């Protein structure tokens, strides 16, 4: 029942912008840390950006200054604003979140289905 639903991926030219969204749905008591990962063909999955419930953020060096992660706690939603996109940013982007379903004692990691981002001219 509890799941992460991603949206916003697509094709964009170098230098363009894109905004990804990920909403946690279901009977959720709380959403703690949320993050975006990405995986390019033949590469390992890597952390792009993470944000705590209180708004503290961390970014991969490769995206600092270009990407911004944010969240709306009331909507249990995390966003990734991507500016000045480069071909090297092409990957499948995955949402990750620490969620506590109603009635459970502990949080666990949940993953979105992934959304394709392609940066090409």
What does this protein structure show overall?
This protein is mainly beta. The chain is 0% helix and 57% strand. The protein contains no helices and 11 strands. The chain has strands at 3-7, 10-12, 18-25, 28-39, 46-51, 57-59, 67-72, 77-82, 91-101, 108-111, 115-119. Strands 2, 4, 5, 6, 9, 10 and 11 form a 7-stranded mixed sheet that branches. It is elongated. The chain starts with a strand and ends with a strand. The model has no long low-confidence stretch (mean pLDDT 95).
Question: Secondary structure elements and their pairing?
Answer:
Elements: E1 3-7, E2 10-12, E3 18-25, E4 28-39, E5 46-51, E6 57-59, E7 67-72, E8 77-82, E9 91-101, E10 108-111, E11 115-119
Parallel strand pairs: 2-11
Antiparallel strand pairs: 1-3, 3-8, 4-5, 4-9, 5-6, 7-8, 9-10, 9-11
Provide key terms for this protein:
121 residues, mainly beta, seven-stranded mixed beta sheet
């Amino acid at each position: 029942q509890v799941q992460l639903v991603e949206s916003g991926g697509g094709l964009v030219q170098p230098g363009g912008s894109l905004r990804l969204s990920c909403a946690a749905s279901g009977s959720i008591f709380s959403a703690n840390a949320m993050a975006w990962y990405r995986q390019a063909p033949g590469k390992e999955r890597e952390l792009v950006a993470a944000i705590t419930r209180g708004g503290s953020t961390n970014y991969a060096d490769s995206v600092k200054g270009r990407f911004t992660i944010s969240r709306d706690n009331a909507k249990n939603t995390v966003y990734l604003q991507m500016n000045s996109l480069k071909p090297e940013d092409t990957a499948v982007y995955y949402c990750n979140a620490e969620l506590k379903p109603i009635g459970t004692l502990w949080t666990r990691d949940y993953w979105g289905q992934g959304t394709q981002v392609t940066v090409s001219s």
